[in-house]
Amino acid sequence: MSEEIFQALIRQYPDARLTAAEQPLLEADFEAQKHKHFSRRALGGAIGIIHNARGQVVLAKRSGMHAGWSLPGGTVEEGEDFSVAFRREILEEIGVSLDGVDLIELERKKFISPKGETFDFLLAVFEARIGEDELPGPTDDALAEGLEIDLFYPADIPPEMILGDRQKLAHHLKISGALDPSL
């Protein structure tokens, strides 16, 4: 991850929360993540907290690497703007267009193998809205990736989410007033 890209995102989104996280992975997951990242020459990842008008949040259940419920999104390809990548991933995986996209968090993530090998990854977390109350059926990309997409009210968010996504979601929902701060 280039420091220039990180600084450009900070300038573009000065109100974004800056965080850092270390993410230990199993050896196979570490190697798969590293291969995915470096083979695509990815700039990082773009995920998001997407709300509908009823106050529900869109989540994706992944079946491959990092299986479990997560915030939807994906890889930012070389030369791609982070917000463009986020919109593209959501259209491909969920089949909806987004309104009011805003970067709310920039996370410097360090993936760590059991052997102590590491690589850095920049994760952009966006907030956005969709006009749909219900989600369309699964897209071809969602089916190909083994994704299940669903809507959840804040009180019904799955307790087990992957890669720190529940903490990101809980933080956002608490500051937006959609979740009881005592949770």
Structural overview:
- This is ADP-ribose pyrophosphatase YjhB (NUDIX family).
- Its cofactor is Mg(2+).
- It holds the Pfam family NUDIX.
- This protein has 183 residues and is of the alpha/beta class.
- The chain has a single domain, classed as Nucleoside Triphosphate Pyrophosphohydrolase, CATH 3.90.79.10.
- Helix content is 30%, strand content 33%.
- It has helices at 3-12, 27-39, 82-94, 140-145, 165-176, and strands at residues 17-24, 44-51, 57-62, 68-70, 73-76, 99-112, 118-129, 148-152.
- The strands form two sheets. A five-stranded mixed β-sheet has the order 1-6-7-2-5. A three-stranded antiparallel β-sheet has the order 4-3-8.
- A hairpin with a 5-residue loop joins strand 6 (99-112) and strand 7.
- The longest helix has 13 residues, at 27-39.
- The N and C termini lie far apart (34 Å).
- The model has no long low-confidence stretch (mean pLDDT 90).
What topology emerges from the helices and strands here?
Elements: H1 3-12, E1 17-24, H2 27-39, E2 44-51, E3 57-62, E4 68-70, E5 73-76, H3 82-94, E6 99-112, E7 118-129, H4 140-145, E8 148-152, H5 165-176
Parallel strand pairs: 1-6, 2-7
Antiparallel strand pairs: 2-5, 3-4, 3-8, 6-7
